[in-house]
Every structure is written in structure tokens, then in C-alpha cells.
Input
Amino acid sequence: MKIKGLPGTALLAMLLMVLSACAPTAKVTTTQAFTPGSDGPFQKILVVALAEKFDPRREFERTIISQLAEKGTVGIASTSMMDSRTPLVRQTFVDMVEKVGADAVLVSQILDLSATPDVKAASPEATYNIRPTWYYNVFTVELTEYTEPRVVDVTSDLALATSLISVRQKAPIWAIHSETSIKQRSGDMSNYAFSQPQAKGIVDRLARDKLIK
Output
């Protein structure tokens, strides 16, 4: 399965999964560097993530906000001011900025999402029951073999583009590209595996570039 990001400007779809047992990280590359002193550090950031379904958007925004709070910055989720029926148009988010007094908007968009399955045959286990007979050096052998069904490990790769838009300048002033790879067992997979590593990678880079305190 391979899902390509949709064309567009600031706000595009995001597909996320749940935390896996391992601790993946996001590899972050700066694509638009920020010039210190031109704006920021920002105090109140509107966080926007879009997806086909409302719940993944809300989960990712909450995770970003939690990471921002650890750095002492206020984050506001766009999903806290809308429901699944709210139109996802530019004016919706402009109105949110004015309502909460945000000085920046953090927007993430999907660049690439791929999943590669790896089918593995389970090793059979066997038990033996050996009994002697009345005949010299002759035995009866009972063999019981247990074979588990094959398992599927799925390696998923997600690449995101994230931009920070300055409300004062009305333009993006910073952008990064972040990638995360997660391996999960089919059947144990759920919906938000990329949320924590991607959110941490994004917010750590914001702090490193002095866009937040």
C-alpha cells in the first residue's frame, strides 16, 4: 500500500497510527530555515492537522500540544473549536486565529506513507511420546505437531512536511521534513503509532530553532 500526499497549499491530509511497543523517533531535516530576530519566539500557537477522519486529527493535535506544554508554550488544537461537520476551509482557521489570539499557526501535511508487509511462517512445535514394547529394542512413538498460523510484520514509513506560519507576517517562516519508520505485528496495529515520535521531533526542532522558549 502506498498513499501519496494530495497537492495543496498549507493544509493537507494526515494519516496517523497508535504508539507501538518500540520507541521510534522522527528524523528531521530543515527545509526552510528561520532567521532569528525576524519574528518569535511565539507564545500561543494554533495547531492544525487534517485527515479524512476527525479522531486522528484530534489525537495528533493533542500530542503536539502536550509536547509544546513541556516547553512552556501554549498550544491550541483546531479540533477543540470544531467538529466533524465543520468545513475545512481557510476562513475556518483564520477565524480561529482571531478568536484565540494566536501569534502563529503550525500546519502539518503528509508527503508520503507506505506500508510493507513481511509474511513469516511460524516454526512448528512437536511433542513425542515414546513407549517401550514387549519386543527388544522396539518402541512405539506418538508424534503431535502444533503449527501456528503465519504472522505478518508490517513496516510503515511516514514522511511529513510541517510549516510554521507567522500571523504577523501572514506567511510561512519555517519548515521541516520529518520521517518515522515503525515495525508492528499485524493484529497489534492500531491508529496512532506515528503520533508521539512525530510530535516530539517537530516540537524539539521548534525549540532548537528558538521559535518557542
Observations:
- The domain at 2-115+153-208 is CATH 3.30.160.150 (Double Stranded RNA Binding Domain).
